[in-house]
Design goal:
alpha+beta, single chain, 35% helix, 309 residues, seven-stranded mixed β-sheet
Amino acid sequence: NASRTMLFDIRKLAWDGELLEYFGIPRSILPEALPCTARMGTAELCGRKIAVAGVAGDQQAALLGQACLCPGEAKITYGTGLFLLFHTGEHCVRSESGLVSTIAYTLFDHTCYALEGSAFHAGSAVKWLRDGLKWLDSAAESEEIAKSVPDTGGVYFVPAFTGLGAPHWEGDARATFTGITQGTSRAHLVRAVLESIAYEAKELCDCMRRDSGIAVSHLKCDGGASANDFLMQFQSDLSGICVDRPKERECTALGAALLSGLSLGIFGEEEFSKVRVSEKIFRPEMPQDRAEKLYQGYLNAVKRAILKV
C-alpha cells in the first residue's frame, strides 16, 4: 500500500498500528511525527541559544525552495541522479506507474502530497564522460560539444550503470548506446548522454500525469546540471512545456531556510514565491511530432537495455 510505507501511514499522519504489530515494533520506541514547521528546541552557538525550527527531506525542501505550492507544479533536481517531485495537492495519489506517493509538506496543520520519481543516473553520466572516458575537461564542456552537431545521428544512450530506477525498477539493466554507425562521432555520443537525462525526466512526467490526471504545468529546475542551457532547452522541447531555472539553484538549502522562518513567524507562506526568482525560462521550440518521435526512440532503447538474454 503506497500510503503505508516505512511503518508510517502518510494519509493518517501516524504510525501504522497494523504494521507495528506485524513486525513486533513497540510504538514507544518510535519518535513523534511533527509537521515541517515544528520547533525542535534550541542549540547553543557562540554562547547564545538559537531556535532549531523547520524540518523536511532534501527533495521536499527543494520543492518548497522552488515555491511549488499548487497542484500541477513540479521541480526537478538534476544532481548525481534525477529527482522529480510533482505536487498533487491535498489528495494522496496512489501510483500505478512505479512512482512513490509521498508527503510534500505539512505546514502547521495543512498537509499536501506529491508523487516522486527518481532516476539513478543523471549528472553521474556526464561525470563518467569526464572522469571515466576522459572525453571532457569539465562537465560544462559537454554543452558546446553537444551543440556542435545538429542531433545525435540516431544514437540513444540509456544511463543504467547500476540498473534503472523509476518507473522501471530494473536492477539488472545496464547502460547502453544504440544506433551507432561509422558516422558516429564523440559529439554525437556526448549529446546522446545529455539528451538521456531529459528523456528520463519526460518519462517521469508522463507517469505523473497518468497517475494523477493532472498535467505538469511547467518544470522548475535546480541542481548542477541545470546550468547546462542545451539540456534545459532540450528538456523544454521534449516535454512541450516551459522549464524555469531560478537564480538560486541551491533550492534544498533555500527551502530549509524558508521553513525555519515560517516556523518562527518571521514571514508567511507568501514569502516562498517572493524569494524564488527566475533566472531564465526555456520555452519549447521543437515541433511536438518530432519530439514525440525522438522520445519513442528512447523508449525503444530502454527496452533493449532491460532485455534479458
